[in-house]
Structure formats: structure tokens, C-alpha cells
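WARN retry 2 of 3 for item q-0093 after timeout on previous attempt; input resubmitted unchanged.
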Amino acid sequence: QVQLVESGGGLVQAGGSLRLSCAASGRTFNAMAWFRQAPGKEREFVAAIRRGGTYTYYPYYADSVRDRFTISRDNAKNTVYLQMNSLKPEDTAVYYCAGRDEPGLTGLRSPAPYDNWGQGTQVTVSS
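OK item q-0093 returned
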């Protein structure tokens, strides 16, 4: 059974940091991503990391988080991380981890092509 389990969310003051983790079990994915959804808004892309070769992975970011967030993965642990620094109140949302087999760029920033999702973890940034 394939499972994605997120952890690391919480309440933090503006300017603070959090690190989210997404542990995958049952399989590995060639592309993994973080999306977020705030109340009353659509789910939006945050960051993705995709396989570009046997040992090469490429990160991608939404403009709103570039230079503040860092996505990484530990293949030995089958886990992807999202380090979030300089957090802002507008980063408040439920953060979801997603995985897919297709490693290409097509649809990387859209939730539709991802067929495996975690349950989400709440991130709240107070002003």
C-alpha cells in the first residue's frame, strides 16, 4: 500500500522557520511536490523535485516562495523535505505532499497529474 505521510507543521511567528517532511512508503516516485491550500482558495503549487538522471534531481519553486523555501529529498529514507524560512502570514495553509511516476516537466506545477497524496499538515504563521 502506497502512503505519503507529512509531518512538521505547526504555529510559528512571521520570520520564523519550519521544516516539513513527507515520508513515502510502498514505492518511490520520480517526481514529488508540495502544494498548499488556504481556506477558500484553490490548491496551489509550492515546490517540486524531479529526477533528471540516475543520481540527479532538479528543484522547482513557485515565485512566491523562491529564495525562502528549499525542497530536498533523501532517497535512502524515501523522504522529501520542505525547509521554509522567513515565513509570512500569507504562507498559512494546509501543506500537501504529492508524488508521481512521470519525471518530466509537463504538469509538474499542477496538482492533477499527481496520483498519490498525503493527508496534509497545517502551517500557521502569525503576524
